[in-house]
Specification:
It comes from Micromonospora arida. The chain has about 220 residues and is an alpha/beta fold. The protein is about 55% helix and about 15% strand.
C-alpha cells in the first residue's frame, strides 16, 4: 500500500481527494492536515510515502512545510506532491527548491492525481505533464549562480553526467536512450547510480541538483 497524507486548508478538498485515492485500491490515506505546521508534525510521526501538499494555507504554508519535512526526515523523506491552483509561477519554483518531488494542478483529472502519486511512490518525480518542459526551462533561467557540490559531481562517471544533462533538458528515458544509442534499461541503471551518488530521491530533484551545481550549462 502507498501511504498518503493530505494537506489542504479546505476540508472539502481533502474529502474529495480521499474518495478519489481510496478508490484506487493500493493507496491508503493515513492522515490529513489543514496547515503546514500540523503537516510537519504528522509527517514526523507517521512517515507517509507521499504527501499531497497545498501551497497557501494559514498557520504554515506548504513550501515552508515541505522544506522542513525534507530536512528533518531520517532516511528517505516522503515524496511531496504540490497540488495547487496556480500554473507556472513562483510557487512552482519555490516548491522545487524546497525539495518537492512533483507538481500538479488541482483541476487535474482524478486518474492524473492517482498516477502522480504512484509515480512519486516509485521514485519518479514529475510536474504536470502540460508544463513539464516549460517548468524545467524556466527553472534553469531563474536559478542563481551554481553552488558547488564538487565532491558529488566528481563521483559521477562521464556517462552518468551525460544522462543527467539530458534528463535536465526534459528528455525521457526513451529519448535519452535513442540519443545515446543505448538501451532504456541502461539509462535507468546509470541514472539510478547517479541519483544515489548525489543523494537525490527522484528524477525531478536530480534536475534541480544539476542546475544548482552547474552540471548543466545554461
Amino acid at each position: 500500500m502507498i501511504r498518503v497524507m493530505l494537506v489542504d486548508d479546505q476540508a472539502v478538498v481533502r474529502a474529495g481527494f480521499r474518495v478519489i485515492l481510496e478508490q484506487a485500491g493500493e493507496i491508503e490515506v493515513v492522515a490529513e492536515a489543514s496547515n503546514g505546521s500540523a503537516a510537519v508534525e504528522l509527517a514526523r510521526r507517521l512517515q507517509p510515502d507521499v504527501i499531497c501538499m497545498d501551497v497557501r494555507m494559514p498557520h504554515g504554508d506548504g513550501l515552508t512545510a515541505t522544506r522542513q519535512i525534507v530536512a528533518e526526515a531520517t532516511g528517505t523523506p516522503p515524496a511531496v506532491l504540490v497540488v495547487t491552483t496556480f500554473d507556472l509561477d513562483e510557487y512552482v519554483f519555490g516548491a522545487l527548491e524546497s525539495g518537492a518531488s512533483g507538481f500538479i494542478l488541482k483541476d487535474c483529472e482524478p486518474e492524473e492525481l492517482i498516477e502522480a502519486i504512484r509515480r512519486l511512490a516509485s521514485g519518479y518525480g514529475l510536474v504536470d505533464q502540460a508544463v513539464t518542459r516549460r517548468v524545467i526551462s524556466e527553472f534553469a533561467r531563474r536559478t542563481p549562480a551554481p553552488r558547488s557540490d564538487a565532491a558529488a559531481a566528481h563521483q559521477l562517471t562521464a556517462r552518468e553526467t551525460e544522462i543527467v544533462e539530458l534528463l535536465a533538458q526534459g528528455l525521457s528515458n526513451v529519448e535519452i536512450a535513442e540519443q545515446l544509442f543505448i538501451e532504456t534499461s541502461t539509462v535507468k541503471s546509470h541514472l539510478g547510480r547517479a541519483m544515489a551518488k548525489i543523494g537525490a530521491r527522484d528524477r525531478l530533484q536530480t534536475v534541480v541538483w544539476a542546475y544548482q551545481n552547474g552540471v548543466v550549462q545554461r
